Amino acid sequence: MSSKPVGLDVLSAVGFLGEPVVVELAWDDDPEPCWRAGYVIGVVLLIEGVHEQACLLVKSPGDEHPLDVYLSDIRSIRSIRSSARSLLGRLPLPHMLQGQTGLMEGERRHA
What we know:
Elements: H1 10-14, E1 20-27, E2 30-44, E3 55-59, E4 67-70, E5 74-79, H2 81-90, H3 95-110
Antiparallel strand pairs: 1-2, 1-5, 2-3, 3-4
């Protein structure tokens, strides 16, 4: 992945609302990036004097509270919904489930 921040702004961050994502976080004083996965459940706006940095609220299944992911700390972010679908298509699924995944994909296309 890139070593520079992705430069995500609030308008592009809104596009991730409700999406399952994988986020790579990096800080100047820590050479190792940190990875987080979860659902983007909110975008917190920068409001001078109230909240000094914009961030995403990322909720991982099993965690009680969402994580504040500051846009300035995001090195990369990727929605995993489409990646998971393409991965599912390559997995050797049991015969009884193979028809189910095609049916679900067809339902999504017609919905």
